[in-house]
Structures are given as C-alpha cells and as structure tokens.
Please model this.
Amino acid sequence: RRRTPTEVVYDVLAYFQARNQRILEKDWDWTSVQSSVGEFVSVGVFDSGGLSVSDDTRDSRRSGLGVCPAR
Model:
C-alpha cells in the first residue's frame, strides 16, 4: 500500500529527529493521493530549505521520483 502524504512527511521528519539524517534529500516519494488536478502528490527533496510537496503524473520521467519502502 502506498502511504498518504501525511504519513510520508511524518516518517521523514521522525527519522530526521531520531537520527539527524535527511532521507529523500534529493528524491521524491509518490503517495496514494491525487491532487485537485488529478495528478499524484509526491513528497521529497528534504534539504536545508525544508521538505517539498508536489504533484505529477504517473508517467513522469523525473530521475528522482520513486517509491520508498514502508515498514
């Protein structure tokens, strides 16, 4: 099952707080939620500027877009 954007954000921030390491620093994780324009919400690029949320189609060819295993 794909996680919701809220679950991805929680996991990324909890990992950062526990280990002081950024996951998804240069990558994105697709979620199960579609945006208001019908594209799928993705979360990622967690750098010193914060964590980004975006949307894209499933056929996007961005090299940093993928799936993160959930526990």
Remarks:
- The longest helix spans residues 5-19.
- The CA atoms of residues 26 and 51 lie 10 Å apart.
